[in-house]
Amino acid sequence: MLTNKTIVLGITGGIAAYKAVDIASKLTQAGANVRVIMTKSALEFITPLTFESITGNAVVTDMFQTNAEHRINHVALSEIADVIVIAPATANIIARIACGMADDMLACTVLATKAPVIISPSMHTNMYENSITQENIAKLKERGFTIIEPSAGRLASGGYGIGRLPDTEVIIGAIQQTLGKSGNLKGKRIVVTAGGTQEDIDPVRYIGNRSSGKMGYAIAEAARDRGANVTLITTPTALAIPEGIKTVTVRSALQMKDVVVKATAKADVLLMAAAVADYTPKTTAKQKIKKGAGGLTLELVKTPDIISEVKGKFLKIGFAAETQNLLANAKKKLASKGLDMIVANDVTSKGSGFGTDTNKVTLISKDGKQESLPLMSKREVAEKLMDRVGKMIGKKR
Ligand SMILES: Cc1cc2nc3c(=O)[nH]c(=O)nc-3n(C[C@H](O)[C@H](O)[C@H](O)COP(=O)(O)O)c2cc1C
Q: For a Cys-Cys bond, which of 112, 218, 345, 348 suits 75, CB 3.0-4.6 Å?
């Protein structure tokens, strides 16, 4: 996805400038050609040598450098960029860009480019909330710049509030989404469920399962990075909420069903990667159940079968997490639930199933076509799935 993409990374004079090292490193590791531009103020926080070592490219810091070995034309990077990302972006650079200034190499590159520009503001809360900064941000949004909302938390300048640079994954997610805007799922509405449902026994306990949500999140991100409009319906997981994806958090199977019904009203595809409980306690105790002398018997009732019950013209793709007779069970599920495709997943095989970063699956379509994929990362599985979804959408319409 990022391989051979030229990403111009602008770094400005904010305290979070050191975090740009991680961004440059991860982008480079992902195969991108990272070209760093630093403002004069950024040089007060971190040295170009770090970025040159990480990216393998010269860092540009001065528009008027004449006899330097790294001298480049003032608009050269604006022309070769697939995307420009400024992280961290100070209040100052945001104001300069909003005014159309071109008073240093970074501002000049942004003004000259036809590539998409992503800005990740990072500053003290008061600077961020100042109406001047907010007006500048609104102006940039209006002009098509992508603005990544800063996160809240402890600020280096003291106190707590909004203004922190978000995690590297969020910034890279925004870059991937931007680069993938005209992918094979452009404009398609894809609903993905992820995680394991939680069926309450009492106010402190629930019946859950071992699903980590990793497969569903990988699918949601892969779809986003091909231009889809993604809604992720997730149970609480340990994973970060992905950038650029509408996310709704639910707990029980019943809650998930209600949200899936609403979200699929205009969907093109529903992908049910969540592990949904088949049974739920008949009643939920209002108070915590105390430990008694004997055992405890819970009466369970069936939960709704979400994928069979939601109606519509969209593609339905289910998952079968099995521990035995994988393919036979998956095919049965495919037919009985009226699915277009099922992803059969042997959760007992090594490196596959719950919690792992890899998965080994077989894709079975309703026409009987069966493709067994080797063990691969969940993101790679998601990409294979999205290749198939792209082709299937064409046929369904
Ligand atoms: C220690 C220190 C930390 C700073 N941190 C920030 C910051 O996080 N965000 C910000 O907008 N400005 C911050 N500033 C102010 C900017 O460095 C200043 O506005 C500068 O002119 C920005 O220039 P640039 O946008 O060209 O990089 C900080 C200044 C100092 C001295």
A: 112
| Full-model pTM | 0.85
Q: Which two tokens stand for residue 103?
A: 């008073």
Q: In CATH, what is the architecture of 6-179?
A: 3-Layer(aba) Sandwich (3.40)
Q: Taking residues 79-105, what's their average pLDDT?
A: 97
Instruction: For 143-154, give the secondary structure using H, E and C.
Output: CCCEECCCEEEE
Which residue in this structure is represented by tokens 């599985």?
A: 381
**Would you say the CB of residue 94 lies under 6 angstroms from ligand 1?**
no
- Distance in angstroms (rounded) separating the CA atoms of residues 32 and 57: 11
- For 96-129, the pLDDT digits (tens) are 999 999 999 999 999 999 999 999 999 999 999 9
Testing ligand 1's pocket by substitution, the residue of 9, 39, 90 carrying the most ligand atoms inside 8 A of its CB is: 90
Q: What is the mean pLDDT of the chain?
A: 93
Residue type at position 381? V
Q: How far apart are CA 305 and CA 276, in angstroms?
A: 9
Distance CA 264, CA 192 (A): 10
Residue of 92, 101, 110 to test ligand 1 pocket, by largest number of atoms within 8 Å of CB? 92
- Residue with CA at minimum distance from ligand 1 atom 22: 13
Q: How far is CA 136 from CA 97, 166, 170, 180, 330, in A?
A: 9, 20, 22, 27, 53
222: part of which helix (H) or strand (E)? Answer: helix 214-224
Q: Is 61 in the pocket of ligand 1 (CB under 6 A)?
A: no
Strand-pair partners of 89: 121
Three-state SS at 224: helix
Burial grade of 164 (CB within 10 A; 0-12, 13-18, 19 or more): buried
Q: Is residue 264 lining ligand 1, measured as CB closer than 6 Å?
A: no
Arch. (CATH architecture) of 189-396 = 3-Layer(aba) Sandwich (3.40)
Q: Which of 334, 397, 342, 345 is nearest to 376 (CA)?
A: 345
Q: Measured between alpha carbons, how far is 93 from 119 in angstroms, rounded to an integer?
A: 10
What ranges do the domains of the chain cover? 6-179, 189-396
Number of neighbours of residue 230 by Cβ within 10 angstroms? 27
Q: Is the fold of 6-179 the same as that of 189-396?
A: yes
**Cβ of 91 less than 6 Å from ligand 1:** yes
Q: Ligand 1 centre and the CA of 88: distance in Å?
A: 10
